[in-house]
Amino acid sequence: MQEETMINNILKKGWSIFRQSYVTLIISTIIAALMMLLVVTIPPMIFGLFYVAIQLAKGKSVRAKDVFKGFDHFLRSWGLTLLMLLAVGLGLVLLVIPGLLLLILYQFAFAISLLEDRKAYDSLKRSYELVKKNFSFSLVFFVIMMVISAIGGLTRFGVFLTVPFTMVCSVLAAMELVKKK
Q1: The pTM is what?
Q2: CA distance 172 to 11
Q3: Nearest to residue 59, comparing CAs of 148, 154, 168, 159?
Q4: Domain coordinates of the chain in residue numbers?
Q5: Cα–Cα distance for residue pair 104/116, rounded to 1 Å
Q6: Could you tell me if 170 and 107 are in contact, meaning their C-beta atoms sit under 8 angstroms apart?
Q7: Which long-range contacts (CB under 8 A, 24 or more apart) does 19-24 make?
Q8: How far apart are CA 19 and CA 13, in angstroms?
Q9: What is the pLDDT averaged over residues 26-48?
Q10: Does 23 score more than 70 pLDDT?
Q11: Dihedral of CA 73/75/81/84: which sign?
């Protein structure tokens, strides 16, 4: 029941943040999507989207151009992305289940890297520890975020709504887990 309440609160707060800042979030997502056409910019732009979501979750004001703050963490963003791709990719090659399990275990790594100013490996380790302690919450949360993302993916432009919303929710969830200890 506690997990259900926590997820419900995260979704409500995430929706509230999204409604208040939807223009900034959608423009940031469009900028990031366009920039991601260049492969080298993908990890920093993901970090940039998380940066925007974190600032909004903390009640701070942001502008769409803040998505470029991900470039302040260029090497860390690439290190984290490569480590995750290697681990999850290997898990998916071996069997699908280990890869999915690693996706669940590492789902908060990007947010944690920025929230706690951690290096790539430490972010993965911290996400693993938090998810392991709160596995049922993390599993249900992961499934809900995947369903929302899949719904957004059904249309060409739905992702510009679901990506920022799920990122805000992921940041809020990571903040809750960090606070929960």
Answers
A1: 0.87
A2: 9
A3: 168
A4: 2-180
A5: 19
A6: yes
A7: 20/56, 21/56, 21/62, 22/164, 24/52, 24/56, 24/62, 24/63, 24/64
A8: 10
A9: 88
A10: yes
A11: negative
